[in-house]
Every structure is written in structure tokens, then in C-alpha cells.
Amino acid sequence: MAQYIMRGGNPLVGEVTVSGAKNAALGILAAAVMTDEPVRIENLPDVRDINVMLDAIREIGARIERIDRHTVNIDASSVDEVCVESDNMKRIRASYYLIGALLGKYRKADVPMPGGCDIGSRPIDQHLKGFRALGADCQVMNGRVVAGAKELAGSHIFLDIVSVGATINIMMAAALSRGRTIIENAAKEPHIVDVANFLNSMGADIKGAGTDVIRIRGVERFHGTTYSIIPDQIEAGTFMFAAAITRGDIMVKNLIPKHMEAISAKLIEMGCEILEFDDSIRVVGTARLRPTNVKTLPYPGFPTDMQPQAGTALALSRGTSVVIESIFESRFRYVDELARMGATIKVEGNTAIITGVEKLSGAPIRACDLRAGAALVLAGLSAEGITTVSDIQYIQRGYEHFEEKLKGLGAEIALVNDEREAQKFMLCAV
């Protein structure tokens, strides 16, 4: 089984370029099947979840042409199936975006229940509520979501909770519905704006994305388009925290500084120096981080996907910090792995009390989900000695060539597939 092995203790220094946003790309790929005209998508991240989604779209009849690693042409005029059978789709959360896309275009969909990282309960009741409000009949049967409607009509939908997935899904279905739809208490994340912009580039009439009220006037059909995906906010934040955790100095390029404000603010509170440019941010670490408190919130608050990276940094701070996870109840599973490395963290419900230590020690640890896995790699790069991180398939779901980008910053890290390769790395690292 593949794993990362690394020798820590060296500051990460240099420049790194952020890839396209995975979470935006997944919604955009699903939406690309809603037109019979060709679509070109650029700045596509080359990660496992994206390739699974492309395979699923291909399996329902779309023609996929991979121009290069980051550019794809999609022609969905040949789609002849609304039943998604791919077993791989059960492993990614974004499988549910095909429900909204297929329901909007073909008035029916049959898609596996979503999978992804086990970070807590993520029900799809708000998705189904929205589809039903538009006039669809929705059932969950045998691990699948089956939806259908003779026609879809605009509606006034108030989401009971702020849900990124439900906002995108309802937005897609409503964009090809008859009449007007209003989504209130909508999520405001950057990738929602990106999906809305993509839909508008195909002829949709969506206003208000990025606010808590989205207004949609349904149109009859979409046309083709060429669209470039925004940079990945969470990948950018991960490398910003890499500078803090390893006491390094990193210029993170190809990002949108406005999207990073909550992350930059916390790093400044921890004592890092932040230098902001038009499309990049430089983070200069400090010899010892200051403690602070973090509470995850929907955008524009501090992202839940950055909580493990923040917790790892605070484990190395001078003092006691409190981290409150208000989005997913199982997002502290990485704490046990950090404890193996010498961190002092006590979890009580949705709160972690972190007493900083001066240094961590290398240990064999495992990635328990996508973002926690990335944070644990950063912990290993700050620790004394050798660290191995197993179950890296989680990390590969959302970070493009993670180890190569880290090597470009001076990290001593390798992706190894067996014990022989691990031993070779350790001999070279002595």
C-alpha cells in the first residue's frame, strides 16, 4: 500500500502554485452534462475525485477528450442514460451533483448515495427538499437516490441549514426549470459562485450567488462554453499553514486573496507575517507560534476543511488554544495521530483543547480523511526524525501531486509503495 515517508525538521521555503478548486470542479463537471453543445473546462485539478467524476460522466454516454492534464472537452449530446452505476461514485461525496444536473436536463436521475471522507453525518435531506419543491418525486432506495418529474417549476426554497451541496444541486436543477426560483439561507462559498458563473456562461440566469439569497430565472436550454475554474482555496490555505507549521517562508501563487481572509487572519493571530499581492500570498513563519482560538463556520468564516491544519499548527504553539468544530462532528479523529507524535490535545465533544509543545517526534501515523491527512503530512515535515503516513488515498482525492509540490519547497518526502522503497528512503535520509 502506498504511503508517504518523510524526514522532518527543515523549514519549507520557496514558491508553490495552487491548482484548480476541486470542490468547484466537481459541480462544474456535473453541470457540463446539462447542454448538448461542447464544453471546454480549463484549470481542472488532476486529482482522484475529478477522474472518478469524469469516468462517471463517460459511462452515461458523454464524450470526454482530455486535452492535457488540466483541460478537458465534454460533449454530452450523446448521453443516453440517467442511471449512474459506477461503483467509484459511491466513494466520493460529489456524486450527488449528478442528481441536480440530470434532473434539470432530463427530468430524471438515478445516482448512488454519496460517499467520501467519514468526518460526520452529512445528510442530503436539504437537497431532496429543494428538488421536491421544484416538483420532483424523490426516493432513497437500496442505497440510491431516484428522482423524476414531468416538469420542474420554480419555487421559493428556504434551506433549514446552510448547505453547500444543496445550494449547488438546487441551483443546477432550478436553472432549467420553468419560472423563477429563490433559494434563501443559501451557502456563500467561493465554489458556489464559480458553479453559478459556469452555469451563466452556458446561458443560465442566476443572480446573487455568494450571498444568502440566490435568484434564478429558468431558461429553456443551455449552450456550450469555455470556462476556467478558480484556484483551490483549501489547497492554498494548506500551503499557507505549511509555512507556519514548519517555521518556513512560502509564496503561495495563483490564489484569490479575498477567499483567504479568514485563514490569513488566524495566521496573523498566531504570529506569522502575511504579505498579500494581487494573486499570491507570502507567509513567513515564526520561531514559536502564539496560541489562539478557532471556530469553524460557513464562509466567510474559518473553513472546516482548514481545521486540521490549524489544529496541527496550534499543537506547536506556546500556550493553550481552543478549537471548536461546528460543522462536522467527527473531524477530530486526526488528534489521536498527532498524540502519537507528542501533541497534547484533549477533545470534549466538538471542542479540542490544545496545549502547545515545542516539537513533535516522527512516528508511523495514518490519514483518516482528506484534510486531516494533509495536516498530518505537515506535522511530519515539522517533526524530528522519520514519519510515515499511510492511507494516503484520502490525500490523493484532493491534492494534486502533493509530495512533488512539497519537494519543490525543500521537503524530504517520498511516495513509496513497499518496504524496500521505504528502507531506501531512510538510508538516504540518514
UniProtKB/TrEMBL annotation:
Which Gene Ontology cellular component annotation is one that this UniProt entry carries?
cytoplasm
Give the main localization category. Answer: cytoplasm
Residues annotated as binding phosphoenolpyruvate: K22, N23
Q: Name one GO molecular function term.
A: UDP-N-acetylglucosamine 1-carboxyvinyltransferase activity
The EC number on file is: 2.5.1.7
Residue numbers annotated as active site: C117 (proton donor)
Q: Per UniProt, which keywords does this protein have?
A: Cell cycle, Cell division, Cell shape, Cell wall biogenesis/degradation, Cytoplasm, Peptidoglycan synthesis, Pyruvate, Transferase
**Which residues are involved in binding UDP-N-acetyl-alpha-D-glucosamine?**
R93, R122, P123, I124, D125, Q126, D305, I327
Q: Report the subcellular localization.
A: Cytoplasm
- Gene3D superfamilies in alphabetical order: Enolpyruvate transferase domain
Sequence ranges assigned to domain Enolpyruvate transferase in this UniProt record: 7-406
Its EC top class is: transferase
Q: Which residues carry this modification: 2-(S-cysteinyl)pyruvic acid O-phosphothioketal?
A: C117
Which InterPro entries does the record cross-reference, listed alphabetically?
Enolpyruvate_Tfrase_dom (IPR001986), Enolpyruvate_Tfrase_sf (IPR036968), MurA_subfamily (IPR050068), RNA3'P_cycl/enolpyr_Trfase_a/b (IPR013792), UDP_GlcNAc_COvinyl_MurA (IPR005750)
Signal sequence span is none
Q: Which HAMAP family does the record cross-reference, listed alphabetically?
A: MurA
Q: Which family does it belong to?
A: Belongs to the EPSP synthase family. MurA subfamily.
Q: What is this protein called?
A: UDP-N-acetylglucosamine 1-carboxyvinyltransferase
Q: Which organism is it from?
A: Moryella indoligenes
The record lists the lineage as:
Bacteria, Bacillati, Bacillota, Clostridia, Lachnospirales
Supply the gene name: murA
